[in-house]
Amino acid sequence: MALLGVVFLLPESRPPEARQITPARSRLAAILGALHRPVLSRLILIFFLVILAFSGMESTFALWAMRQFGWGPSQVAYVFAYVGVLSAILQGGMIGRLSRRFGEERLLLVGLALIGVGLLALPAARWLPLLAFVFATLAVGMGLVQPSLNSLISRRAGREEQGEVLGVSQSVGSLARVLGPLAAGFLFAEFGRGAPYLWGAALVAAAWLLTMLLWRGAGSASLAGDAAG
Fold first, then answer.
1. What is the average pLDDT score of the chain?
2. Residues contacting residue 97 through CB under 8 Å, at least 6 positions apart
3. Of 7, 29, 23, nearest to 160 (Cα)?
4. For the chain, which domains are there?
5. pLDDT range class, residue 11, cuts 50, 70, 90
6. Checking CA distances to 164, which of 26, 79, 155, 182 falls within 20 to 30 Å?
7. Cα 115–chain centre separation
């Protein structure tokens, strides 16, 4: 369905003349180009840290729930369905209005704070209402962070390279989805079932501080800035 939507419904954003004159770059050249731009590279680093933390939570939660609550696959599936529904509601119908009212920078900071609080509180969730609250904060946090970061990264790129830069950020996110479960699994096995979430909270705290430094460094200007970065 997504493929059909792209083929039949998604308009091409680049004019024909731009497609003809813009030379193609290798993925390595695109990555190096993005990393040499200070604000853009830091936004991508924030994206990496968030995905690293969140993917570690996703990959170990079933094991955690087995030990914490004695749950099986069905109960874990209900929790992830709950997260998915909340994220879909936020990203599908609310994020545009929130962005226009508050701006991506503020939404990013609030979302990071919610994810950090959720990860920090998860090891202490010993009854269902608290667990539901924790995962609501995680779902809302990711629902704010991911589209806000994508928007900021896209707007930091030039119009002729937006797809390329977003491809770089998604490649970095894919790397985080490989490394996050590896690190979280190791921490779970070696230091106990709460360790991956405390580690994830520390990663998100670092991302929050980096966002604050970027915002203060930009002064009154938006992090989206102009394409020059």
1. 87
2. none
3. 23
4. 46-65+76-217 (1.20.1250.20)
5. confident
6. 182
7. 10
